[in-house]
């Protein structure tokens, strides 16, 4: 009989009702004590373990809980605390962690917060470890071991989880003198060895050691360090499961075979094709843990498909084949049973974290043909089938429109040069036109209005009338500031994806489907379950109204297809690019309706364009080809004289600049301020042909840029971009700022534009 242990890589720590979020925020406001906060964390851990235990998983995963972020938790465990956060007694406690993450201690002392960045290609953000040249590592913070003691007190059979040493180093950044952080591994190994020894004292049999960087295109020197590192680790007879996720490890199998570890976990949801190279090349004396239940999506697993995969693997791994989640379940919502209002037919197709633990056990029962397996399999077949044939999913007219797409859909009538002449004649904008990215401050008043509308305590008419007042005020302020291209301010939008998704068919919304984004912040991604189309115009009335208030052009403002897709849960019953095409057609309809309504400038935001890039370079071109095409399908139906803008906010463009150019937007506005305009070098090197608005100040900071500073930024930008093609704007939307800040900053910005125009 095959030993098929069942396990998950981690469970959401935010709590079924976002208890952790609420407790954290109360604690930071000094409304509850630390003891009360710790109690909430304890309860969540206990609840999570109970779920795994009741699902009869072979192991309860422990050590996955963290107060803010698991990378930050690892930094604390290893003693990687930047000096500025250390109190005189050098003691580390959870307040130290919060201060690192938030830049503010409980007594309101300010420190520069640690950086935060995206966890691989997910929407989760981690706190970036900071390493100094002679970084010392030491075990000073005990929470990891406290979790283990706590779980052991229930007599659970546990499998602790820890970030592996190389992935941990990879995720960090160096501070101060330049040096190669990889060299720190020698200082880090003894600390890991000390951890293993302590785990041994706790009679731990298996440890999950996460090394997801094995699924990246790693530089050679990092790959090589794996062998050295693992040979020097002393596991004290604890069995190590090296865990990978989010991609294929095919290229690194030989490296992994040579590591003195006992097992490997692979993600068969994001990279099912690696099954073949595993069979061929992975050492079958080791344990293979198959990540077959998708931790990053919300669909019920198709047991038949999974059993097929496991049967293929069984031929080679006949001794130890484990069954698990593809990655940690922190990327999926906690419990489907919290959803009281979902369409029952669609709800029956879904599975959240709790349900996934049950699925894993069911798959094991079916795989090993244990008692009652047939009934379980039959029910699953029925559920999967019901989704495949549902009229809610399939819409033949959408399919027809997709098959009718031809190259005319994704090319403008003329090239940029010809278009720009027509646009210049139409708009008569000054040199260095000024604009903003779209949103203006979302005041308390605006948020309350939206809340009241949702609760039904105000009528639609009253809501519309009041939002119109806000738009009017926003337009007047922009006119007074003498901006050249205006926006309506996005007061009617809660969020840039949900707002559009609510008007498109094929999306459904949960009430409790929260997923941690960072710290106490959660997002509630919409679910795309069926063919997408736009039933009626979404933004046209607002846009028309806004344009009626002024003679200056007001931009129509849309969210692009890749961003809508990336910030939703996507279908798994058709290729993602098919869903993307459907969203692009819906947006194309909106773009054309805006144009018909007299909107001459339309901006399609794609902030997620880069983050959606696959982890491995070999997969980039395929992604870029469909994502660029989708943007063009959305944008290219308009006349030459209609100006298309796009906005992206991140500062690494070098390697995808050709794709950005292929989008052929007339104007692109970018986040640039934090990179000091240097990223524009890439645009110059590429001879980027269209217009660019590099963000000239950082909207994430409350600091108000003065006119001189802005002029200096612009002079830098002019080294890379010819004056005829340079726009002036902040680096992102202004919704998180307050009005006094925004007015002053924009005033200085338009002053700077005037100064510069005088010089040219
Ligand atoms: N138009 C959006 C805004 O201004 C863009 C947001 C973004 O780039 N994330 O808020
Ligand atoms: Zn932005």
TrEMBL record:
Q: What class of enzyme is it?
A: transferase
Cobalamin-independent methionine synthase MetE C-terminal/archaeal domain location: 432-755
What InterPro entries is this protein classified in?
Cbl-indep_Met_Synth_N, Cobalamin-indep_Met_synthase, Met_Synth_C/arc, UROD/MetE-like_sf
- Asked if the Swiss-Prot or TrEMBL record annotates the protein with the keyword Amino-acid biosynthesis, the reply is yes
Enzyme Commission identifier(s)? 2.1.1.14
- Tell me the cofactor note: Binds 2 Zn(2+) ions per subunit.
Q: Where does 5-methyltetrahydropteroyltri-L-glutamate bind?
A: 18-21, 118, 123, 521-522, 567, 611
Matches recorded under Pfam families: Meth_synt_1 (PF08267), Meth_synt_2 (PF01717)
What does the entry list as the binding residues for Zn(2+) 2?
A: 658
What is catalysed by this protein? 5-methyltetrahydropteroyltri-L-glutamate + L-homocysteine = tetrahydropteroyltri-L-glutamate + L-methionine
Q: Name one GO molecular function term.
A: 5-methyltetrahydropteroyltriglutamate-homocysteine S-methyltransferase activity
User: Which cofactor is recorded for it?
Assistant: Zn(2+)
UniProt pathway: Amino-acid biosynthesis; L-methionine biosynthesis via de novo pathway; L-methionine from L-homocysteine (MetE route): step 1/1
Family from the record: Belongs to the vitamin-B12 independent methionine synthase family.
Q: What is this protein called?
A: 5-methyltetrahydropteroyltriglutamate--homocysteine methyltransferase
Supply the source organism's classification: Bacteria, Pseudomonadati, Bdellovibrionota, Oligoflexia, Silvanigrellales
């Amino acid at each position: 009989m095959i030993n098929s242990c069942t396990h998950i890589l981690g469970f959401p720590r935010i709590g079924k009702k976002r208890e952790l979020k609420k407790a954290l925020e109360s604690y930071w406001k000094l409304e509850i004590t630390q003891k009360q906060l710790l109690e909430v964390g304890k309860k969540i851990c206990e609840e999570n373990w109970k779920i795994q235990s009741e699902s009869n998983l072979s192991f309860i995963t422990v050590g996955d809980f963290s107060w803010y972020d698991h990378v930050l938790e690892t930094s604390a465990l290893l003693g990687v605390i930047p000096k500025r956060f250390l109190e005189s007694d050098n003691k580390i406690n959870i307040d130290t962690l919060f201060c690192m993450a938030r830049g503010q201690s409980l007594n309101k002392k300010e420190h520069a917060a640690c950086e935060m960045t995206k966890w691989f290609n997910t929407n989760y953000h981690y706190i970036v470890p900071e390493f100094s040249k002679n970084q010392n590592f030491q075990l000073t913070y005990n929470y990891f071991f406290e979790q283990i003691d706590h779980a052991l007190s229930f007599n659970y059979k546990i499998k602790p989880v820890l970030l592996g040493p190389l992935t941990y180093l990879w995720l960090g950044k160096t501070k101060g003198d330049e040096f190669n952080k990889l060299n720190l591994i020698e200082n880090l190994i003894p600390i890991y060895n000390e951890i293993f020894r302590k785990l041994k004292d706790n009679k731990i049999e298996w440890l999950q050691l996460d090394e997801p960087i094995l699924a990246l295109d790693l530089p050679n020197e990092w790959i090589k360090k794996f062998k050295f590192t693992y040979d020097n680790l002393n596991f004290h007879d604890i069995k190590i499961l090296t865990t990978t996720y989010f991609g294929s490890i095919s290229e690194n199998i030989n490296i992994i075979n040579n590591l003195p570890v006992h097992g490997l976990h692979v993600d068969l949801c994001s990279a099912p094709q690696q099954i073949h190279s595993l069979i061929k090349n992975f050492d079958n004396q080791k344990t293979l843990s198959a990540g077959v239940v998708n931790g990053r999506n919300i669909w019920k697993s198709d047991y038949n498909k999974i059993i097929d995969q496991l049967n293929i693997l069984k031929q080679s791994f006949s001794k130890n084949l484990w069954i698990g989640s593809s990655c940690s379940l922190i990327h999926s919502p906690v419990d489907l049973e919290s959803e009281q209002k979902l369409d029952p037919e669609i709800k029956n197709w879904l599975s959240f974290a709790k349900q996934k633990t049950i699925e894993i056990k069911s798959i094991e029962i079916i795989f090993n043909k244990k008692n009652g397996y047939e009934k379980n399999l039959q029910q699953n077949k029925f559920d999967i089938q019901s989704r495949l044939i549902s009229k809610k999913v399939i819409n033949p007219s959408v399919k027809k429109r997709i098959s009718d797409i031809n190259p005319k859909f994704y090319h403008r009538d003329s090239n940029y040069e010809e278009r720009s002449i027509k646009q210049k004649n139409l708009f008569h904008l000054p040199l260095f036109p000024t604009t903003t990215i779209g949103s203006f401050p979302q005041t308390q008043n605006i948020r309350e209005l939206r809340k009241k509308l949702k609760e039904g305590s105000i009528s639609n008419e009253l809501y519309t009338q009041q939002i119109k007042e806000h738009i009017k005020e926003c337009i007047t302020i922009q006119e007074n500031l003498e901006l050249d291209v205006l926006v309506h301010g996005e007061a009617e939008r809660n969020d840039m994806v949900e707002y559009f998704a609510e008007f498109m068919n094929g999306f459904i919304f949960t009430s409790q489907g929260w997923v941690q984004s960072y710290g106490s912040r959660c997002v509630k991604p919409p679910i795309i379950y069926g063919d997408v189309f736009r039933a009626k115009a979404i933004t046209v009335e607002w846009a028309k109204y806004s344009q009626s208030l002024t003679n200056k052009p007001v931009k129509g403002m849309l969210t692009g297809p890749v961003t809508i897709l990336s910030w939703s849960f996507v279908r798994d019953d058709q290729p993602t690019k098919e869903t993307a095409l459907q969203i692009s057609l819906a947006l194309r309809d909106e773009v054309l309706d805006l144009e018909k309504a007299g909107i001459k400038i339309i901006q399609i935001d794609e902030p997620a364009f880069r983050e959606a890039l696959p982890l491995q370079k070999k997969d980039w071109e395929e992604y870029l080809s469909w994502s660029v095409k989708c943007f063009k399908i959305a944008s290219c139906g308009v006349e030459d004289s209609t100006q298309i803008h796009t906005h992206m906010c991140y500062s690494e463009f070098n390697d995808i600049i050709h794709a950005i150019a292929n989008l052929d937007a007339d104007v692109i506005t970018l986040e640039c301020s934090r990179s000091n305009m240097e990223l524009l070098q890439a645009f110059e090197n590429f001879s980027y042909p269209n217009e660019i608005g590099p963000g000239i100040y950082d909207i994430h900071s409350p600091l108000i840029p003065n006119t001189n500073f802005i002029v200096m930024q612009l002079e830098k930008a002019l080294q890379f971009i010819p004056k005829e093609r340079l726009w002036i704007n902040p680096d992102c939307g202004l919704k998180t700022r307050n009005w006094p800040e925004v007015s002053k900053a924009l005033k200085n910005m338009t002053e700077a534009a005037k100064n510069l125009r005088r010089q040219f």
